[in-house]
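ARCHIVE CARD
SHELF: 3
SLOT: left
DATA:
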Amino acid sequence: MLLEDASLKALLNTLPELDRGFADLPSFEAPLDADRLLAVLQQVAGRMHDNYPYFHPFYAGQMLKPPHPIARAAYMLATWINPNNHALDGGRASSAMEKEVTAALATLFGWKQHLGHLTSGGTVANLEALYIAGQIHPDKKIVASEQAHYTHERISGVLKLPFGKVAANSTGKMDLEDLEAQLREGNIGTVVVTLGTTGVGSVDPLADILLLQKHYDFRIHVDAAYGGYFTLAGNLTPEIRRHYAALNQVDSLVIDPHKHGLQPYGCGCVLFRDPSVGKYYNHDSPYTYFTSHELHLGEISLECSRAGAAAVALWATMQYFPLEYGGEFARDLARCRQAALDFHARLAADARFLTFYPPELDILVYAPKAPRASAISQRSQELFDRAAARNLHLALFKYPTQHLTTLWPEMEPDEPYVTCLRSVMMRPEQVDWVEAIYGILVEEVSVQ
């Protein structure tokens, strides 16, 4: 059986302990038609066949990482209670767990004080960070690299905040000269710095942007939704390590536990270095927060109802995998990056392929060789389809041709964008599958 099921046995052995916590209640059992339940679940299982095998090492495409069994089991266990982490009377234990995990994440980035909470995902987490940015600099612009996630421009539009793009250089990083030129205009309130772009996995030069902050008045928000956990990885280059080491100086950041944090969807996290920004969340809800003088998470969140199960699952995972340098979780992150490096090295040494710069995290971009940009795009699509027919699932990615002419000087730039192949090596097991993945590509590119 390909699908892991040991966690189900552990879950069944744990349910009696959960039940024991409510032993003083009168006996009660909700009616349930077990046969009908099984019949519907069989239908669900059949419908779910129409999916890519995200759990398998042969899925080397989009940024989709399977949750760890401990997270899956803990989430499901919590759903028997179904806590809501908006107010304490909706989820006392799960709210306490959420405060613990957000404090641990803040500590990971070097913050002794913080304000933060979990969200339903990275989009809402970034929305909250930009909402606070807009409250502090209401008439100033939000800027992000042209390779940053599209959500920042869209969120700025929702919040009615002016937004601008900073040029990216050929490596996919924010261009410092263009950023400083825009800062001189004096109308930028917040710079969004991406530590791990979702396209090519590039790390914006955070440490250098912090130097600019000494000369210009702006906030720094870091979108580390995808790349944040890599601060633990022991095999980053010294240059990339330099930027991660500067995270303790930023104003806010976002990390997504449902990416490299091994969580089910949706679980994001927003953190602020200055706890006083909590004043911008102030609101009145006389029927919600009356049960306790302790902090209700809804008092520092734009969201209302949120699944307490997400906090329970993350708490359980962090007990199983402590966020320790050199620990098992950190070693697995390093293996993800090593898988990307090994894959890139094989492709770079093969004259049939064109490669991007070596991976900074665990994303690599590559393409089958062809004389023209349009031909590269066509061959990439064909190889994508041929690999999928053999159960090897990749992703496609359009990159500006102008940024590839230095890397691929023999390419005729007959189109503004080149469609390339892209792989996110998010499973530590893939370090042992690189040869098999590469072997399929070699066989299929040879018949094009």
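SLOT: right
DATA:
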Amino acid sequence: MKDDGIIVFDTTLRDGEQAPGASMDIDQKIRVARALQRLRVDVIEAGFPAASPGDFEAVRAVAREVDGPTVCALARAEKRDIDQVEMALRDARKRRCHVFLATSPLHREHKLRLSREEIALRAEQAVRYAREFFDDVEYSAEDAARTEPDFLAEVVERAVAAGATTINIPDTVGYALPAQFGALIGHLRKTVRGIDRVVLSVHCHNDLGLAVANTLSAIEAGARQVECTVNGIGERAGNCSLEEVVMAVRTRADHFGLGTSVRTEELVATSRIVSEATGFLVQRNKAVVGENAFAHEAGIHQHGMLQHAQTYEIMRPEDVGFPSTRLVLGKHSGRHVLRKRLEDLGHEIDAQKLDRAFDEFKRLADRRKEVHDVDLEAIMRRIAPVEARP
């Protein structure tokens, strides 16, 4: 059990790439893997080798490239899949096999057609087989959030006894609520024998927009690995966003008392690399890495920012990779920021000149989404001749 920090397990190259339209070729995966290495995530899940020959080669290429993070690959609870992971990761400096098997009633009945005992036995056998090749084995109980808590505890206990070093509790379909999910993690910590010998992990999807909230609730309950993706990409509505959970833990260190190894100054650069590789644009209002994350237009906010940045920003833009805060000039902006911007452009501003400039600025801002420096210079050129007359 890790107590002093959070292990960041990035699955952009595996679960993130499963988002429809997000497929990456080997060169793109290598570029993303290098960015994740610079970001200093702890684990990179490179793919699912048994899924296709192309995925096998991509995992092998990432395993050869990465130095620092553990390279992980996914396997169903089947010997063939585990063998594929072993072959794909042979050249990795640090490697992990990630075995998964669903546990929920819906998956047992409709997908797997297996009894509870068959599920528990198959999970146990798969972990034991993986341990023949790997010192580092993770077991995931797919759809854990919709699994009977006592049965989930039984499967987890058997996986731990079989040699799993990480136990992952996924909210595979984004169904959980924060209090409920935290309680589930607490239940496992209380009831599973041997749970203190392993790292307890969570993997949350965002179907109800709660992936980060559920992950943070799990951390509060004792989880010490978070599975996440850059920009929150992934199947359906995506996964827990890496940048959001990392900065939540960092910004609210007073509450969590934990940290990560992530170099947060690389977050924006990594976000852009993933966006380019997948073709998925980052929404302007995306937390932490969106274009508007450190931009302010409202006059009241801008006035506060000019006095003290923490009036309206809980993080420094430089800490995530932005060069600075942006005070956007638009129709909601006030006199304080206009005066500051004109002074920054080299203009001496008195009260009369500011009144004239502000009137023109407001008329222009009502017609445009944003007023730029070139527009302000044009306004000042129009004002100056008026003032020059006797």
